[in-house]
């Protein structure tokens, strides 16, 4: 498409906006690293996930939640944000893996990708570790490498600009910390600091990936789980506060989910068929309506049977006497 250089809405509209932002506002953080859904389940819950963090994607949301991995689990996601917006082709995806290390620790690996065709490509790869420090407290840490490339910099119309003089790509390391507190079987709290070190991915001048501080609570009712979360994003120039609410209704083999936050309405479901799972999320921005069919996200997962499921007679021998009650199935 770039070689043909056809004069379409895409070339003259979206591309021009991105180009102007890159050329004249290089300090404005155009990186989308923190906007890529790290978990389809979290997306369906309006993003309120820091106090739950019970799937392999916890590495990039709250690494303390990796302790919820009682067996080897993996998931793959693909999504189309703003599907239906004319001449805008965006795709997102991730691959996540959670691996228990004994009864009180777990490790996680995750890779994310975001691609706006002809504009920018972004990748994030990281590894995390979670530890059940006490029966009521889990802590975790993740280190990730963030890399982005401005594909528009290879377009002859923009390649000669000074912002691309030293190249069109940049990478940096981000650090994420998290905690989970299991106060009672019904109530738990979570907190995390994402990109605590505020990595710089600017090509010419600093382009800081904002630090995100998340605080959330989970309360379990007999027939539903309620989640609430507040988030502060610090991009050096300004600080913004966001709120998120979510609810999950577990049914046999199915979980129904819905959420709302300050900029979107969300919904979705989870389906568990033996060791295989399917999660779906729908995300509708409140401020975008024309030619917009919302953002669609789908993930598939696989969970190996845990030691207790394979050999239930030996569970008592291996389970910590005061292990917290953690629900990770529908």
Mean pLDDT: 80
CATH architecture assignment: Beta Barrel
Annotated CATH topology: Porin
Query: How large is the share of residues in beta strands?
Result: over 45%
Major β-sheet strand ordering: 1-2-3-4-5-6-7-8-9-10-11-12-13-14
Termini gap: 45 Å
Biggest sheet: strands, sense, closure?
14 strands, antiparallel, barrel
CATH superfamily: Outer membrane protein transport protein (OMPP1/FadL/TodX)
Topology order in helix (H) and strand (E) letters: HHEEEEEEEEEEEEEEHH
Class in CATH?
Answer: Mainly Beta
Annotation keywords:
mainly beta, Porin, 14-stranded antiparallel barrel, disordered N terminus
Question: Would you write up a description of this structure?
Answer:
- With 330 residues, this protein is mainly beta.
- It has one domain: Outer membrane protein transport protein (OMPP1/FadL/TodX) (Porin, Beta Barrel).
- The chain is built from 4 helices and 14 strands.
- Strands 1-2-3-4-5-6-7-8-9-10-11-12-13-14 form a 14-stranded antiparallel beta barrel.
- The N terminus and C terminus are likely disordered.
Summarize this structure briefly.
The chain is mainly beta and 330 residues long.
Could you give the topology of this structure?
Layout: H1 9-24, H2 40-44, E1 73-80, E2 90-100, E3 105-116, E4 120-134, E5 137-149, E6 169-182, E7 187-194, E8 211-221, E9 224-234, E10 239-251, E11 254-261, E12 264-273, E13 276-285, E14 295-303, H3 307-310, H4 315-318
Antiparallel strand pairs: 1-2, 1-14, 2-3, 3-4, 4-5, 5-6, 6-7, 7-8, 8-9, 9-10, 10-11, 11-12, 12-13, 13-14
């Amino acid at each position: 498409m770039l070689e043909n250089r056809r004069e379409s809405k895409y070339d003259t509209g979206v591309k021009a906006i991105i180009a102007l932002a890159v050329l004249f506002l290089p300090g404005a953080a155009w990186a989308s690293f923190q906007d890529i859904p790290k978990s389809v389940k979290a997306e369906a819950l309006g993003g309120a996930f820091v106090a739950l963090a019970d799937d392999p994607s916890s590495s990039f949301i709250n690494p303390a939640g990796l302790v919820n991995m009682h067996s080897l689990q993996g998931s793959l996601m693909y999504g189309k944000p703003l599907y239906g917006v004319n001449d805008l082709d965006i795709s997102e995806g991730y691959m996540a893996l959670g691996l228990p290390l004994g009864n009180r620790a777990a490790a996680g690996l995750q890779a994310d990708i975001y691609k706006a065709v002809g504009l920018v490509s972004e990748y994030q790869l990281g590894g995390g570790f979670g530890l059940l420090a006490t029966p009521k407290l889990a802590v975790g840490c993740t280190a990730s490498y963030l890399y982005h490339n401005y594909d528009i910099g290879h377009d002859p119309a923009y390649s000669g600009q000074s912002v691309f003089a030293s190249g069109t790509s940049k990478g940096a390391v981000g650090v994420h910390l998290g905690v989970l507190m299991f106060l009672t079987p019904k109530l738990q709290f979570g907190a995390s600091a994402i990109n605590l070190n505020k990595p710089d991915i600017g090509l010419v001048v600093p382009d800081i990936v904002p630090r995100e501080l998340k605080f959330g609570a989970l309360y379990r009712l007999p027939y539903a789980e309620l989640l609430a979360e507040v988030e502060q994003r610090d991009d050096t120039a300004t600080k913004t506060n966001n709120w998120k609410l979510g609810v999950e209704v577990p049914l046999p083999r199915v979980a129904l989910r819905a959420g709302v936050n300050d900029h979107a309405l969300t919904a979705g479901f989870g389906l568990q068929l033996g060791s295989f799972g399917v999660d779906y999320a729908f995300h509708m921005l409140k401020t975008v309506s024309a030619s917009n069919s919302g953002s669609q996200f789908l993930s598939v997962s696989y969970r190996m049977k845990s030691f207790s499921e394979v050999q239930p007679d030996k569970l008592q021998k291996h389970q910590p006497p005061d292990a917290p009650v953690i629900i990770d199935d529908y």
